[in-house]
Design a protein that fits this description.
The protein is an all-alpha fold and 289 residues long. It has one domain (2-288). It is 81% helix and 0% strand. It contains 13 helices and no strands. α2 (30-44) packs across α4 (61-84), α4 crosses α9 (171-192) and α6 (97-109) crosses α7 (115-139). The longest helix has 33 residues, at 256-288.
């Protein structure tokens, strides 16, 4: 129960960070929002500076490059998607990273992919088509939708790289290198598009980064208190949380297509997570004996 509570808090903090980005997006470019989110989180997790100094202990440098580059692209793309789409829609598309993990792991790591997982992935993407069709045809928000999909793909690649790095690198070192790399990578682009934020927006900018850092911290705490297979579905709570925030603060209303497509996406994602956890337990049992 404690793990579940921390996981719910993580989803709520993620949605709060997205709401702050949505609020600021009318005045500040996505690159600046992404930089502030990464920089504030880096300051709040000050211990990473000490870990970053030990970068020579890192193993598999090429995978670190993949992890950091894909992660920075995911952050930048998601910030743009949040400013261009309703929060719930951007979050729902981003959740499809769960569906992209099996094919990404297959391509990059050579991991097998069960036909049932492939079927679930196809169902999930059918749900995305249902959700996006009115957006692309009627509203013309294709750039925002493509940005959200880019964020999902890049996040899946980044998480696949983490799976490759995790056995041979301390978690704190991985967080440190990623945090510093995001700030370094995003700073030049943000500088070319810089808009000095109004003084009244500074608390919201701090909240943007603080909520993101809280989301990461509470997620880590949750995984220390409960198994990953139990906690994974709680990550999907970011979608309804975002929908409620979008309705309350920005007047975003979900249509029937959003609900039907969202159910397909979340159902397929939950199946992928559950099946993957079951397969991991089976491989662990076989390795034990």
């Amino acid at each position: 129960m404690a793990g579940a509570a921390w996981a719910i808090a993580s989803a709520a903090a993620f949605s709060a960070s997205s709401a702050a980005a949505k609020f600021l997006g009318v005045r500040l470019p996505a690159s600046e929002l992404a930089l502030f989110r990464a920089a504030v989180a880096l300051v709040l997790v000050a211990a990473v500076f000490r870990e970053a100094l030990a970068w020579r202990r890192a193993r598999h440098a090429g995978w670190f490059v993949v992890r950091c580059a894909a992660g920075a692209l995911a952050l930048l793309s998601f910030m743009y998607a949040i400013t261009a789409l309703p929060i719930a829609l951007a979050t729902l598309i981003f959740v499809t990273r769960v569906l992209m993990l099996p094919p990404t792991a297959r391509l990059l790591l050579g991991e097998p992919m069960d036909p049932r997982i492939l079927t679930a992935v196809m169902v999930g993407f059918a749900g995305i088509v249902v959700v996006l069709w009115p957006t692309l045809v009627v509203k013309g928000e294709i750039v925002g939708a493509l940005a959200a999909l880019t964020a999902a793909v890049a996040s899946a690649v980044s998480q696949t790289a983490v799976r490759r790095l995790a056995p041979d690198n301390p978690e704190s070192l991985m967080v440190a290198i990623y945090s510093v790399a995001c700030v370094v990578a995003l700073a030049p682009l943000a500088a070319t598009q810089w808009v000095t934020p109004p003084l009244g927006d500074l608390p919201v900018l701090v909240a943007l980064g603080a909520a993101a850092a809280i989301s990461q911290y509470t997620a880590v705490t949750a995984f220390r208190r409960a198994p990953a297979a139990f906690l994974a579905p709680f990550d999907f709570l970011a979608v309804p949380f975002s929908a409620l925030i979008g309705l309350a603060l920005f007047g975003d209303v979900l249509g029937p297509g959003d609900l039907v497509g969202g159910a397909l996406v979340l159902g397929a994602s939950a199946y992928v997570v559950t099946f993957g956890a079951r397969a991991d337990r089976q491989r662990f049992a076989e390795a034990k004996g």
